[in-house]
Amino acid sequence: MKTQGKVTGIISNLVVVEVDGPVAQNEICFINLADTKLMAEVIKVIGKLAYVQVFESTRGLRVGAPVEFQGHMLEVTLGPGLLSKNYDGLQHDLDKMKGIFLQRGDYTDALDFDSEWDFTPLVEPGAQVSSADWLGEVPENWVKHKIIVPFTFTDKYTVKSIVPAGRYKVSDTIAVLLDSKGEKHNVTMYQKWPVKKAITAYKEKPRPFKILETGIRVMDTLNPIAEGGTGFIPGPFGCGKTVLQHALAKQANADMIIMAACGERANEVVEIFTEFPRLDDPRTGRKLMERTTIICNTSNMPVAAREASVYTAMTIAEYYRSMGLKVLLLADSTSRWAQALREMSNRLEELPGPDAFPMDLPAIIANFYARAGFVYLNNGSTGSVTFIGTVSPAGGNLKEPVTESTKKAARCFYALSQQRADSKRYPAIDPMDSYSKYLEYPEIQDYLNKNINHAWVDMVMKAKNIIQRGREAFEQINILGDDGVPLDYHDRYWKAEIIDFAILQQDAFDKIDCNTSLERQRYMLEKVMQVCDTNFHFDGFEQCASYYKRIINVLKQMNYSEFQSEEFYNYEKEFEAILNERRLK
Amino acid sequence: METKAFQRIYTQLTGITKATVSLRAQGVANEELAMVHGRLAQIVKIMGDLVTLQVFSGTEGIPTNAEVVFFGEPPKLKVGDDLAGRFFDAYGRPMFGDSEIEGEPREIGGPSVNPRRRKQPSELIATGIAGIDLNNTLVTGQKIPFFADPDQPFNQVMAMVALRAQADKIILGGMGLSNDDFLFFKNVFENAGALDRIISFVNTTEQPPVERLLVPDMALTAAEYFAVEKKEKVLVLLTDMTLYADALSIVSNRMDQIPSKDSMPGSLYSDLAKIYEKAVQFPDGGSITIIAVTTLSGGDITHAIPDNTGYITEGQLFLRTDSDTGKVIVDPFRSLSRLKQLVIGKKTREDHPQVMNAAVRLYADAANAKTKLENGFDLTEYDERALKFAHDYSEKLLAIDVNVEVDTMLNTAWQLFAKYFSKTEVAIKNEMVEKYWPVN
Q: In terms of CB atoms within 10 Å, which end of chain B has fewer, N or C?
């Protein structure tokens, strides 16, 4: 029998329920309000009183309203048909909802239970299987969606029977498994899993050792993110966080993209809805939407569901990882999630931590980032979840609790700088403040040196050093004036500018420049370093500036040209010619 | 909202604070309205039979034996065509002794639009102000605030934008408007003969601050009626959102909530987003566009109110007095309309993006030249020309009293380019230069 209860108190979306039986922390319940059922989650229990956060508006709710507890935590439904869907934070399909407005209690199925899938078995009766092992597969867009032994199955099993290849619905039984005691278990094509629990049904989670190509030069070249790695992008408003996230979603070398629009603008999600079904995935030639799933809880949608949305997204990512896929999870913005936690903590009258955020915020964030990773599955294949979150620091101040807590958890830090944004140097990722811890991993260094250029890491470090020295020279020039410093300072400053203009800056709205392959990044960095390694002769600082501006111009033209096209090589010739003009022998 | 015969009257308050009263009552619903001692109040907390009500107009003079009557419903606004042309108070009651309106009551602060039922905004709103149309083009379904210091003429600019914009309805939500400003809006609208498409919900500084909290929801409920049911283009003006946020902090303070940054409630972001996100473009043509005012203190945009607003809205507009021409201009450097990419060069002439960027870049050169001049350095001949260009650009285009079509703005810009610069200095794509560069 399910535990029942009735409402005894209401403070905004925090509701107090008196219960008649056992309840669990984070258990889901439904509150009856006239004809609608409002979904809620237990967040505190004192004696017979359960405090629940309601995922909807509680307007019109009365004391005494009946409540039904469900005996499980917040779950997502996992199975074929998740790809290309647009969900709300609780995995309700937004397309299936009727009406213009989101009516509370309008809960729609995450999967299409009527459609049939082409199932092919991957195991024979008699095979030994355990949790997360592949039983069969169905084609879903271009992905081979694996039907796996549910994560909740903790025993060792023998396949008693499996259906032959054919068309089945997600709720059809496709296999019968026998556990070690000989009991039968039916397996369908879908399963449920509580979102707040990490899926750990894999063999091993090594340190990441490969990089995930994003096509964004300032990331891949200077501060690469590892496949299965974590990163975050903090920045004040107007610095291009969203443009950067969209660029990642469009270009990153991943099999699947999950975008969690968490507490951000609805029109930004509408932009994805409009563009992604039209844009081509550069790698497969299919539409971008075919590899994308959107979890959308915009800023005006209920705040408690905002918190759930990032977990929903992560669980779906982990599910696809266990099929051996490379998943990229993007969350915009994790600050809104933290603010949702703050609102609830405040209503619960907990003692506040810094800026009124809950005391356990750093732990919650660290725990969440830890769910990303590169894994070896039971059958030896590999899968990964790479996570990149944005942070919206209040007042653009990076010394606030969400940024600081995230900095401890994420391995890559892409600081967006107001100054760079103001001078229209996009993407506004600050090359000096940002870092990638992966660049220090010996396994990543080996990977880069082996796959790009044998001295790649040294070259990157040298480029960073030139940027740093250029910045120092610039400060000196500003203080002492153009005439007040040796010519050498100007030379140093302009060499850093070349790296800035040709490598760091990238036009997200240009068809060619927006996406740069690793090979092209190597080619361009070598070109730029060639300039940096050359000594030139100048008669004065004006001559120096105008000469380097010419080099910058021709390098930019190269960036705008199709790689290795005739146009590209023509600009390259021009580039060499310019270098020869003033090269010191 | 009169008391009905069968309604129970409570007469014993158990607690009174500056903004709230509490009493024991049964069978009441969350967010339902009540009348406390003749004043409107709303339920904000229920614990067992102990009910806490927020009294909008304050609790001064309310005795413990005050009469309390519950209405059994949340705040509503009667919507209908005869909303048009009228002025309402924060409760949606007609002002100036007007008759009640006929219409269907709607709950205010209703649910949000399913993002899948939105359309990407793509229709330009022309205001005639080049600082907006040329540099920071507005689009239907957009939400954008003026970030302004209290001494700037933001209400005048907003009234101007409202009258020039080709909207079917203009809804003014006035929060903490001074009575003078209120009369200003009223006069401007009356004189323009535009009253029939204007609806106003006004809370002035003479009225209690907490009442303000109802104004945006009232205005937006009316807006949704016209946008959804009548498929009209609705423009909503909200001034001043800083005073709205201040009212939020008053209430949260009285309810013993722990304040976060700048003494604002921790839910400020969600509270503001709920309002601004009502801006929407529907596929069938109806739209709600929100232009708001957020006053700054000392130009500080890192304060919690402008900061949270900036993360929610699609850009921001800054006003500034240009010292060269003495005119109020829309600052081309700090202002931004995030949605302009959706229309410029697509719904406007092809040269729009390039002309816009070139003009702002040359204006920036002038700003640098000015700094040079102030620091006592010599100006080059180019600097001199840039400065002259800046003067004309500011006077003929940026000044808010200019009222021209976008094409005229573009032509003016080309004329200024040709007057002061060479084609290479302007650095616009060749094919555009050949087509639009003035012959003389």
A: C
Query: Choosing among B54, B269, B288, which should be mutated to test the A contact, i.e. which has the most A CBs within 10 A?
Result: B269
H or E element, residue A505: none
Q: What length is written for chain A?
A: 585
Distance from the A514 Cα atom to the nearest Cα atom in chain B, whole angstroms: 17
The CATH T-level fold of domain A4-73 is Thrombin, subunit H (2.40.10)
Q: How far is CA B24 from CA A564, B5, B318, in A?
A: 79, 21, 50
Over range A286-301, report the average pLDDT: 92
Q: What is the chain A residue with the closest CA to B121?
A: A267
Amino acid identity, position B65: N
**How far does chain B reach from its first CA to its final CA, in angstroms?**
70
| Contact assessment for residue A302 and residue A13, using Cβ atoms and an 8 Å cutoff | yes
Confidence category of residue B1, pLDDT binned at 50, 70, 90: very low
Angle separating helix axes A487-499 and A456-480, nearest 10 degrees: 130
Fold for domain A217-433? Rossmann fold (3.40.50)
Domain ranges in chain A are 4-73, 112-189, 217-433, 456-582
Q: List pLDDT tens digits, range B379-413.
A: 888 889 999 999 999 999 999 888 999 999 999 99
Least confident of B271-275, B292-296, B373-377: B373-377
Looking at domain B9-70, its CATH class is: mainly beta
Alpha-carbon gap, residue A82 to A65, rounded angstroms = 35
Chain A: closest CA distance from residue B191 (Å): 36
Are the beta carbons of A408 and A364 closer than 8 angstroms? no
The C-alpha atoms of residue A6 and residue A65 are separated, in whole angstroms, by 5
The CATH class of A112-189 is mainly beta
Q: Cβ contacts of residue A259 below 8 Å, gap of 6+?
A: A245, A249, A272, A292, A293, A294, A295, A313, A330, A331, A332
- Burial of B274-313, coded b for 16+ CB within 10 Å and e otherwise, reads bbbbbbbbbeeebbbbbbbbbbbeeeebebbbbbbbbbbb
Cross-chain residue pair B30–A298, CB shorter than 8 Å: no
CATH code of B76-107+140-313, in short, is 3.40.50.12240
The residue-averaged pLDDT of B330-344 equals: 90
What token pair was written down for A61?
């709710």
pTM of the model: 0.93
Residue listed under structure tokens 């008699």 = A126
